[in-house]
Structure formats: structure tokens, C-alpha cells
Amino acid sequence: MADSTDPNFARASAAHAAGDLETALEGYVAVLSADAKRLDALDGLTQILEGARTPQFHPGLAALLERALGTPAARRDGLVRSAQAQLALKYRMADASAVPSLDILDAFARDGLLLAVLHLGLIGDPVVEAFLCRARRALCAPDAKPKLLPLAIAFAQQAFNNDYVWPITAEDEAALTFVAGDEFGVARRAMFGPLDPAAASFPMLGAYLAERTKYEAALQSAEQRIVSMYPLTPDAFAHATARDAHAPAPRWQGLRMPGRIDIRAGLGRQYAWAGPFPEFAPPLLALVPSAGTCHLALSMAVGYDNVQVEATDLSRRALAFGLAQAETIGVPNVHFSQADLLDLPKTGAGWGHAEALDVLGAAADPRACVEALVAVLAPGSFLRLDAPGKNGRAFLAKARESLRAAGAQTDLASLRRWRTDILSGKYGPELQRNLPHWPGFHSAAALAAFGLQTHDNSFDIAALRTLLEGLPVKFLGFEFDPGTLQSYKKKFPAEQTCADLANWQKLEAARAQPFDFYRFWLLRI
Description:
Elements: H1 7-18, H2 21-34, H3 39-50, H4 59-69, H5 76-90, H6 102-110, H7 112-120, H8 126-138, H9 149-161, H10 170-176, H11 183-189, H12 203-224, E1 227-228, H13 234-246, H14 263-270, E2 284-288, H15 295-303, E3 307-313, H16 316-329, E4 334-338, E5 351-356, H17 366-375, E6 377-388, H18 394-405, H19 412-424, H20 429-434, H21 444-452, H22 461-468, E7 473-478, H23 482-491, H24 501-510, E8 517-524
Parallel strand pairs: 1-4, 2-3, 2-5, 3-4, 5-6
Antiparallel strand pairs: 6-8, 7-8
Helix pairs in contact: 1-2, 2-3, 3-4, 3-5, 4-5, 4-7, 5-7, 7-9, 9-11, 12-16
């Protein structure tokens, strides 16, 4: 619970707002030392740590990152990126010729930050991945000591996290020939593929396997409890079944849990010029269509005050992951239903809020998606959408073409070879430069889903105007950075709401290139 009278938090917040990050860090750490459950302080600390970069390894920063990663309420993706940057500096991972020695492996086994990243995150830096692949191979050497078993288990967990997407070379296969069938050997083999059931007979691996088995059982139980909102059409059912069979649901790690906000009141203040807005009886009924593994749905459930969230998707497996996470974290105010976004009007429901992110870019008919959403929203509801720009999407379309050409949509061995070819530059410098820094590149499940996607839509503001034309909605505004919004106000001083799409189209036309991405709010009228 936030306490505005806490002097440490007040000092940290003021320093954070003023850009004095060192003072802000000290204040947030002081608050958390007194009360580790202070989510507002944890959120402030995480915001700073996510963007923290230093020219040399910084032990104090590494300790803060390790502490934050160990907090269940922390959002981990950004923390893992910062942690990777520190680890790359600490172990000089940028040296492509470096072969990790046994001394380095010993240091790894004692490095709490590295172990936390391997267990809790997803390695997303190609330089760090390459170094860790060499370390993984060195861990299979005949002189590697069994005391490194915890490190091998951490590598095995990272392999599970990334769905075994890291390459397996001839050198790796040769190194594995020296690996015995004891506990250390079984753990090291699990760094390259699924854990052998024989692990159950060993003390440390048995405990690890029990946790994994418990996790899988929770997923299976959750999937059995996902029901359809209405009878699916044969085409929708076939699509959902094929997707679940060939593309495992990408997993996410960590959920941001700041203090709750009254989202309608906040948007009402931000877009007061478009009001007045009707009062809705609590709880606010919020819809997240095409929710996937439900990170957005759970984020809304813990971040918005007095809300009941409905998460829908065609994939029961993806929804099951969301349900299992909700039960693990303790998020009771989300309901999960199998449903096709386009068929939601069949329900006749009148939700009071909706957020549909990462939907329009992959939709067969983006206009039909927006029409369906508008049809199920009550007048006065807020709707949040996003859309990829024409400038920011090109390399992903090329990547999907190369993925399909390699026949790597669902075959893991082919997928690994394709990633190696991307990194080597076989598919050209643009993909070699950009794709390894796209988060989906580092998960086999994400790449499989990416390969099965059949539509690549991109937009500019003219296309967004066409998308929304004639619908019973009012455009409220983009979630652009303050500098872009200020540019709009400077160019159009008579229109300070930043909500005129015709003006935005003029501003975009004057730019050297279109915007990369659009996220915006609409009002159902």
C-alpha cells in the first residue's frame, strides 16, 4: 500500500521525477528495506534499473538487479536486459574467441545474478547467448566437477524457458559423449533437451523435476477448465487446434504490480475535453480479446481498481498458461474463455472497457476486428488499440519469409539452423542487424507462432483514418512520447487536444519517415 507520508518514498519520488536517479535509488531501497511489500517503491526501483547501463561492471547495480529479480512482484523482462548488460561486462562476453575456463564456470556457479537470469528470465542478447553456449559446452568437459551441478540445472531451466532454441553444434554433440549417466550428467544433458525422467532418482534433480512436474500438471489442469464462450465454428476450431498442436504458447516471466489506479477516472481526466463520460456500476467489466498467454489481461487485473477482466483467445493452451499464472500469483479477477474475436458480438455483451494489443498487425481483416470490438462495448467505454507502422514492420515480414523458406515454422532443428543463418548474415545484413534484438527471436515457441502467422498488416496515419472511418468511435489520442506530442502542439497551436487525425497525417507527411508504431485510445460513442 502506498504511503505518501513516508519521507524516504517522498524523497525518492521527487528525485525520480527530477531525474536524480542516484538519490531516487537510495530512497526506494530504503523504503523496501523497511517494507519489502511496498509495490510503489519496487515499481520505481524497477523503472530505474530497467534502463540502467554502465561503461564498466558495477557491483552495486548488479546487487540491486539480483535483489529486484528475486522479488515475485517485479516485472522481469527489463531487469533481465539490464542484468545481461552487466554480466556481459563482468565476464567480457563480447570477445567472440573467448572459451570459458573452469575458473569462469566456478564463478558462474557462485554468481547470484547470473543464476537468477538463467532461472527466471529469457536470454535476449545474441552476444550473451553465444558466450553462454560456449560455457554450456565447457560444462560438458570431462574435468568439469560435480560441484557445478547447480549451474547445470540453471542452464537446463534456461533451455526450458527458451524452448530449447539455442543451437546444438557438432562440437556440442562431441562434448556430450563425455557426459555420464549420473546426476551431474543428466543435468548437463538437460541443457540441450528435455529433462530425462531418470532425474527423479537423484536428490537435487528430483526436487527440480518435481517442481517442473507440478508446473506441467497445473497447466494441464488449467487447460481442462478453459471453456468456450459459445460454440466455435468448424474453421475456428480447426485453426485453434492446429495452432495448439504446432506452436506451444510463449511463456512470460514476471508481472508488474504497481499500486492500482482508477482507469476510467484517469482517462476521464486525460481526455476531459471529450467528456462528460457516463458512470459504470462497479466492477468495471474489461475485455482483452486475442489475449494469448494473458500478460496484458493479468496486468490490467492487478493494475486497475475494481475491475473484472475477461480474457479471450482461440488457443486454450495459451489461456491455460494465463490461468495457471493467475492462480500462482493470486489474481482472482480474471475469467478465461475460448473465443474468436470476430464472433464476440454473438455474446451480446456490453463491456465497459477493452484493450486489444498486438491484434491488428496479424489480423486477416483489421476493420472487422475493430467493428466486432465496437459492437460489444457499451457507449462511453474506452478502447485501447495498437498498430505497427509501415516503417517498423518491414524486417519482420522479411524474417517470416526466410523462416518459411527454411521450412522452420514448427521443426526445432530447422529453427535452430535458421537462427544460426540469421546470425551469420546468410539472409542479409538487415535481418542480421535487427532480428537478434527482437524479443521473439529468443524463444522457439514465439518463433513457431510467428511462423504460423499468415498476415502482416502495417499502417500509417492515413490507413488508421480509413480503418476507423464511419465507426461509432471518437479518436482520443496517441500514446506517443512527450517530444512528439509537443511537436504536434507547436505545429497546430489552435488544436491542443492532439486528437485530430487529419493534423497527425500532415505531421507524419512532413517527417522523414512514418512513425514506427501507433498505440491509441478511442471512445465508444
